[in-house]
Amino acid sequence: MLNEKMIGLGTARSVIRELFEYGNQRAAVVGRENVFDFSLGNPSVPAPPKVNDTINDLCRTSDPVQLHGYTSAPGAPAVRETIAQSINRRQGTHFTGDNLYMTCGAAASLTSALNGLCNPGDEVVVFAPYFPEYQVFIEHTGAEMVLVPADVEAFQIPFDELEARLTPKTKALIVNSPNNPSGAVYSEATVEKLADLLRLKEAEYGHPIYLIADEPYREIVFDGVTVPYLTKYYDDTLVCYSYSKSLSLPGERIGYIVVPDECADSKLVFAACAGAARALGYVCAPSMLQLVAAACCEETADMSVYAENRRLLLEGFKEMGIPCVAPGGTFYIFPQSLEPDDVAFSEKAKSLDLLVVPGSGFGCPGHVRIAHCVPTERIQKALPVFQKLVDLYRK
Amino acid sequence: MLNEKMIGLGTARSVIRELFEYGNQRAAVVGRENVFDFSLGNPSVPAPPKVNDTINDLCRTSDPVQLHGYTSAPGAPAVRETIAQSINRRQGTHFTGDNLYMTCGAAASLTSALNGLCNPGDEVVVFAPYFPEYQVFIEHTGAEMVLVPADVEAFQIPFDELEARLTPKTKALIVNSPNNPSGAVYSEATVEKLADLLRLKEAEYGHPIYLIADEPYREIVFDGVTVPYLTKYYDDTLVCYSYSKSLSLPGERIGYIVVPDECADSKLVFAACAGAARALGYVCAPSMLQLVAAACCEETADMSVYAENRRLLLEGFKEMGIPCVAPGGTFYIFPQSLEPDDVAFSEKAKSLDLLVVPGSGFGCPGHVRIAHCVPTERIQKALPVFQKLVDLYRK
Q1: How far apart, in whole angstroms, are the C-alpha atoms of residue A378 and residue B88?
Q2: Do the chains contact at A47 and B68, CB–CB below 8 Å?
Q3: Alpha-helical segments (H) within A31-144
Q4: Residues of B with CB below 8 A from A283's CB?
């Protein structure tokens, strides 16, 4: 009688959430300092001070009716223009405010874009390992998710596997670089090869194939890695951005979609995203946070903790002999499990109060995700426990 | 190729928005003070000072990682509990935090509830005059909107018309009291009769019929009118609330759904709303605003301006002979147009720089909506222009 699919989505137990809650229960028994919880991808560093300073200034100096009032559905014009110019300065693009649609964060960017683009029967390609909500978002549009298996050597794109899965029904691909959960950043070579392949297939099929770049981790990169800005490589690209990670504001729900002029049917795509946002009940992105995003769009939270945590884990795992592709970005690392069954491996880790998420939930068995957005001290104390886990497999 | 329905929604010209933009153009020509724009339902009184005070306190005293971090999907437990207890104190209900799902405003409340409840082929009953987005929200679920024509005598419920439209496919009804655009508040007698009829039909059809109470205007009432709290009259009620109007925070997108324990399949309905919110891309309601809502949930903006504006308009219209049902609440009044064609009437008003919205867009021709959420001075200066409009019909 009710919508069974929605009941399913509302009652599904999240493996990540269950691990996190188990960690809280264990903490009550053995003490918080003895539980090594790497389950949740929640930024652990504070927003840059300019965020709260901006909020306080706005509350002190703005007309409250304006400050807290509706903006137009795509966002306040000055906010969109400021952010567009900031992207242009940093990425060498040529956007105006008219190319930006402000949203309630990356999830809203994705659902608005997908509902605008897709019709029932369409296919949307996703690359393993992938953020599991993609499937939920895609299927709500009536489209089908088509999964490309992981390139576990480097977490780039396995092009043969991709090509075998492109069909005339392919409406869009979602790429997520830097990637949750692997931390991988697509190289310029990968991006160029992807763009070439998609242009070929567009010509073959006679219709656009849209590339949706889900980029909440763009600002969290290490060792001088750069993240190619995809609109410069492939015209039919939509960028879905969120300030959740760059400004450590995940609860505030603020982000945007970029629809470049060079995108096929650009004006119609923008209208379709706007129409979808409307049908889903997004009236406008939170008004004060729009202004905060514009004021702080060239700031980031202090990412040095993530860099140090990543370094400690990679060096430790190397010494212990845990195979792991070094991530170019994000606050995740994604080592191999020491037995093929990543769920069993995660359970064994759990018996040591080491909480890591099985990769099979991300479409990539044989690996586990470690969210190292935690105090560095927890990493330092966890390394000997990882060693104990390794020893369980070597005894 | 793209989703045509979404393109349609994204490009549709809103009559209200067009009037508002025409007003801005005219203001540039004849001066802002000579344009009498009553098109937009945007609160004109500031949020109560406690809102910005709370924001400043939170920014000064909270851990920013917590303050701006994800809450659980239904909202922060303490926020939900505080608001539940506040409703209980004011309405005599018995909710706990577990009955509340925090949302990004009333539109998100409605889309989450409708997508959770409805399957394609279901029918959702709406009463004219109605907020036009209801149709967009209902049709996105695959359900069909069934419109009950207006009771233009009192804007209560025309029960014969309603009964003729209830079928075994009826999944839900949306009621909006105080009503946009009529300002009408359903009397206790209306609510009791509605509850009786729905219980009868539930028994006849052998399944629940859900009553969705869309209540953003609950706090804006006049002359001692009280708004019955519908869960007390009819078990299978969901309340969709927003702080947009009560706290003058329409841009901040904060509200909630109440799913009472006594509602049929209460736990499943809650899960379905949660699942729908997830599929639509609502990760959580804006985190800081959740705390603001909890701190300010017994405050309201100063509604005395709306009371004075309403009084001036009603008295003026009475003198001029413009027929108008006195609204019990909201910042709208909904007089009859002085010719049957409300669009022609609105055009004639427009020729005098008097901007009022035709009722036909709300499913109620022969009327116009006047949004009196404006400075009282604008009302005072507009009354002679309304008289000029009347004279055009009496010459």
Answers
A1: 43
A2: yes
A3: 49-61, 64-67, 77-91, 105-117, 133-140
A4: 105, 107, 250, 253
Tell me the C-alpha distance between B302 and B204, whole Å: 46
Residues of A with CB below 8 A from B141's CB? Answer: 3
Query: Could you tell me how many CB contacts below 8 A there are between chain A and chain B?
Result: 254
User: Strand pairing partners for B369?
Assistant: B357
pLDDT tens digits for chain A (395 residues)?
899 999 999 998 788 888 988 998 999 999 989 999 999 888 999 999 999 999 999 999 999 999 999 999 999 999 999 999 999 999 999 999 999 999 999 999 999 999 999 999 999 999 999 999 999 999 999 999 999 999 999 999 999 999 999 999 999 999 999 999 999 999 999 999 999 999 999 999 999 999 999 999 999 999 999 999 999 999 999 999 999 999 999 999 999 999 999 999 999 999 999 999 999 999 999 999 999 999 999 999 999 999 999 999 999 999 999 999 999 999 999 999 999 999 999 999 999 999 999 999 999 999 999 999 999 999 999 999 999 999 999 87
Q: Which residues of chain B make contact with A280, given a CB cutoff of 8 A? A: 111, 140, 280-281
Q: Which chain B residue shows the shortest CA-CA distance from A170?
A: B1
- What chain A residue is nearest to B138 in terms of C-alpha separation? A279
Report residue A212: phi and psi, to 5°: -100, 115
> β-strands B100-103, B255-258: how paired?
antiparallel
**Contact at CB, A46 and B56, closer than 8 angstroms:** no
